Amino acid sequence: MALRFIHSQLFVTPPAPTGSYAGQTVIVTGSNVGLGLEAARHYTRLGAATVVLAVRSLEKGEAAKRDIESTTGRSDVVRVMQLDMSSYQSVLDFASTASKTLPRIDIAILNAGIAAGKWAVFEQDESTITVNVVSTFLLAFALLPKLKSTAQSYNIRPTLTITASEVHEYAPFDERKAPDGQIFARLNQEIVNGKPTSMEQRYQVSKLLEVLAAREFCALHPASTFPVTLNFVNPGLCHSELSRDSGWFLYFLKLVLARTTEVGSRTLVHAGSSGQESHGQYLSDAKITPPSAFVRSDEGAEVQKRVWDELVAKLEGIKKGITTV
C-alpha cells in the first residue's frame, strides 16, 4: 500500500479535464477553497451553465465566485448557496432549496469534509462522523429525487460523487467489534476502555465508512435499475486546508509528496463525469481501482451491511425530526 501511494503521488498525474459541460448544472460542496474550488473552476471553464458553490461561509463563497469568474472570464454562471455540514437542518434546507430553484442537477460533487484535531460533537455524533459520513449521506439522499427527475426529464444519467480517500485502507476501525446496532454509538464515545479516542485515526475511519455505505447503497440499487451513478473518489494527498489540524508528520509528508489542489481536483471532475460503469466503484488516479482488502473481504461485506443498516436508521430519524424550507 505504501509503495503504491508513493508511486501515485510522485509519478502519476491525472489528466486535465476536457470536453464540454454546456447546459449542465453542477453542485460542488466545500468549494470556497482547495479541491472543491478548483473542481468548480474546471466546470465553469468547460462551459457549465450553472455551477453551485455550496459553502458554509457566504462571504468566502462570494470571494471564490469572483476568483473563478476572473480566471475563466465567465460571469452569470457561478452561484453561491449556504451549506453547513455540521447542521442537519442546513443540509436538508440546502437540498430543498437546490431542488426547487435549480431546473436540473447533472453532477453533484459531495466534497465537503473535515479532519478534526480535537474531540467535538456536532448534532448527534463526533464532528468528523457527523460531517464526513452522516451529513454527506443525508445530503446525497436528499438530492437523489432531483437527480432522478433530471435523468427522466433530460434523458441523461446524472452523477453523484463522494470525495473519499485512500486513507480508508489504513483505518483500524475497532468500532466494528461493537455489538449489533452499536457501531455509531461506539464511534460517539470519547473514552473507550479508559483511553481517549485517537483523532488521528478518526478521519481514516470516516472515509472507510463512506466507502462501505456507498458500496452497500449501490449493491442494493444496481446501475441496471437505478438512473443515477453514485461513485466515490480518492484525490490523493493534496495541498489543502483539510489537514491543517493534523500535525507535523502530515505537514512534512505534504511538503514531499502532495499534489497541488488543481491536480487533485482533476480526479473529482473525472469521477463526476464517469458513466454507468463507475456506479458503486472507487476511483483513484482517474480510473476504477479496487478499494482496500478489508472492504473486499467477507468480514468487510458483513460490516458494510451493519454500517448501512445503522446509517439508514439514523438518517430516517433525522428527516422525521426536521422540517425543510
Instruction: Outline the low-pLDDT stretches.
Output: none
Beta percentage is 5-15%
Number of extended strands: 12
Q: Helical element count?
A: 11
Calculate the terminal CA-CA distance, rounded to whole Å. Answer: 46 Å
The average pLDDT is 93
**How would you classify the helix and strand content by structural class?**
alpha/beta
Order of helices and strands: HEHEHEHEEEHEHEEHEHHEEHH
Please give the oligomerization state of what you see. single chain
Calculate Rg over CA atoms: 19 Å
Overall geometric form: globular
The main β sheet shows up as: 8 strands, mixed
Strand order within the widest sheet?
Answer: 3-2-1-4-7-10-11-12
- Considering DSSP H and I runs of 4 or more, what fraction of the residues is helical? 40-55%
Please tell me about this protein's structure.
The chain is α/β, with parallel strands linked by helices. It is built from eleven helices and twelve strands. The protein starts with a helix and ends in a 5-residue tail after the last helix. GO terms for molecular function: oxidoreductase activity. InterPro entries: NAD(P)-bd_dom_sf, SDR_fam. Keywords: Oxidoreductase.
